[in-house]
Fold this sequence. Notes:
The protein is of the alpha+beta class. It is built from 14 helices and 13 strands. Helices cover 39% and strands 16% of the residues. A 6-stranded antiparallel β-sheet has the order 8-11-12-13-10-9, with no helix packed on it.
Amino acid sequence: MEDKIREQIALFRYGIIAPLLNGQVEPKGYWVEIEAKSHSIPYYGERKIAAKTVQEWLLHYRRYGFDALKPKKRSDQGNSRRLTPEDQDHILELRKKSLHMPISVFYEQLIEQGEIYKNQVSYSTINRLIRKNKLNGKNVSTSPERRRFAHAKVNTLWQGDLSHGPYVQKKKTFLIAYIDDCSRLVPYAQFFSSEKFDGVRVVTKEALIRRGKPSMIYADNGKIYRSETLQYACAQLGITLAHTQPYDAAAKGKIERFFKTVQTRFYPLLESDRAHSLEELNQRFWRWLEEDYHRRVHASLDGKTPIEVYQLQLEEVKFLGDLSLLETIFLKRHNRKVKHDGTITIDKQLYEVPPGFIGYSIDVREDEHGVYIFEEGKKVAEAKRVSLEDNAHVKRVRSPFSLSEMDILKDGEKHV
Length: 416
């Protein structure tokens, strides 16, 4: 089983035990609820889970942390196997995420991604499996039941989302923000020039540093909030990460309402006095957020302001003890095999790693500052960006075991 699959399974298991860790549910009732339904487990597919199994996961997490939730590595790793019932369930689970794709294309994707081997599993086998389980077309989804809610304590739940912002110097901006469900306080928000995950990473880290740790983060089904990096970070911090259904904006109404307030109260201030840079836009937005939004009486807070409600429960807020942890858990993660020339490729850019890693698959993590190599969750080396021009002028050390053409000629003369 690949490390990526093991981590996905660990994230699933964490999602099951998270409500217990955060005291969101009553244990006895939760055991009954868990055992009563089937769960879609990465790699294994639809399965029932026993209460005893969940209790073991909970115990392992409390004793040894997130890594204890990963399945143990196989002793016969690397050897080929037949298509077992577990493999069939895994393929069906992948199919559910690719219902738009013709079965023939899906079969080719399985081979390309290394899920199956062409000489071991035929197209007809996959085709029969999919048709037998009626997964050859799109499923019809139903609208979920929705009820209005509000949590009584601050930092119980943060809603997160992205909104399209104003143009700055003819370039579009995007506002990424969190809002506390109880106090309507915004832990942190910032405008960015793109919709990439880097923005979510910055906003999440700053929100945690400034306003403490929430029990849950509730975001939409977008790619940046489905990022494995965010899932991993939340699991390490003991935060439940939950998602709305696709295209269901109403499910996170509080953050949507905040964006509307920004549009009606902050954006008009930019019409007569436009921001000339992204930095200026953010500085003016943060000032408006602290001086206007946080200190204005909110209609849903019984005559109080967001900052008043938050400060009244300040003793309940859990701040992070070791902020350096944030620098590690929010790194973007990759798995790469090191080529014979000691390089790896990330985002079409070559990086050089120490010679000892040549031929091995390594755990690589990156941020805006650099690319790092990890082993067993610890940083052990740093990869350096390759400059082909510089490498052309590097003086190579000649091996004492190599023979030049001149050496061979001289050696031949001795024997004449």
